[in-house]
Amino acid sequence: xxxxxxxxxxxxxxxxxxxxTFLLMVIFGTIGMTLFVGKGLExxxxxxxxxxxxxxIFSEVLSSLKTNYVEPLDTKDLVYGAIKGMLxxxxxxxxxxxxxxxxxMQVDTRGEFGGLGLQIGVRDKRLVVVAPIAGxxxxxxxxxxxxxxxxxxxxxxxxGTSLMDAVQKMRGPKxxxxxxxxxxxxxxxxxxxxxxxTLIRDTIRIKSVKSKVLEPGIGYxxxxxxxxxxxxxxxxxxxxxxNENIHSLVLDLRNNPGGLLNSAVKVSDQFxxxxxxxxxxxxxxxxxxxxxxxxxxxxxxxxxxxxxxxGSASASEIVSGALQxxxxxVVLGVQTFGKGSVQTILPLSDGSALRLxxxxxxxxxxxxxxxxxxxxxxxxxxxxxxxxxxGPIVREKDLARHLSNEFEEEMxxxxxxxxxxxxxxxxxxxxxxxxxxxxxxQDTQLKKAVDLLKGWRIFKGVDPLLSAKKE
Length: 471
What we know:
By secondary structure, this protein is an alpha+beta fold.
């Protein structure tokens, strides 16, 4: 062996000895650390080791599927399916949201997006325009309710195309163009015709607050969802109604599925006196956060009736529960949905997210409405129009894997049903309900609320002593 070879050999042996020495130092250092921290770290390491064992099983299953399944499989699809399975083993409101679903949820909470302004649904497996929204590109271009969507640009909207897929293709940045092909006249005796529209996308804003004066002195506000800008829009609606010299108010939370917790707090804040507790949130560790009113209400002395029904859930129940507990409003209607849990959105690295139940909420009096809902002060059942079809009433307690209420015993003998709330078949995009129909004689609950407010004002002006003297 040459001198250079001997030198190289010594160098390698030295490096080897240094590696062994370093490894021994790490080992003894780890042992010393373990002895120092004691049993706490041992149990933690043990728990983590068990988790890794479980992950090893998952890896084995994934490898077996990829290798042996009869058809080629996409790893991402398998992983997403496994995650959905994990979340599906929890309560009814925890879920995994793929990127497209998470993006749609963000649109719902923001209340605006770049698009055309169409509300679409599915009829006979075809995508149908439910209604164009007033003032949007779709309405201006002349697209009508009942039009069947055939193509979006070069994409064919075949039978069975999902609402989500169609919405994604119609939405896009403001100012960009999209070509929409529709079939019109399928429900008429004349031959249907295909029409082609080229539209420029615009910012579409979903209104969550609608208001009007029902009759002299009585204002009406409908909140359809609790979004980022709901509290701001509510404040404007209240100012406008006060300028109309209202002396009473109806707050309509019927069929409002909820939304953002902070939005519900800010909405409640506009009806309660500063310092009043609105809602408290408790996690599994017992940690409690309290949300209180922080501003003076502009509606002091204005009697309020809150309308609720079985579709009033979550954030709607926070608002109605707070106003009921503080006797700030009379709640009228039927028992609410009964969702007393709080979900946290946890974004993931690939654009997907987890919607995870992390706490329960309690009304100012300490009530949990999980599975029980808000019981109205005055029960009024809505009378259905003869042509309307009524489906089964679904509440939180009917959902599979619903959380229990620690203050209430579970109903014995009830079977869990696999149900979604809100119904998965609802039209996508915006639902622009016409509140001008709310004042009709057919709305039993609203009519009762108006009559009560009128009666309250009449009795308020009556002097019992003077009335007794006259008699």
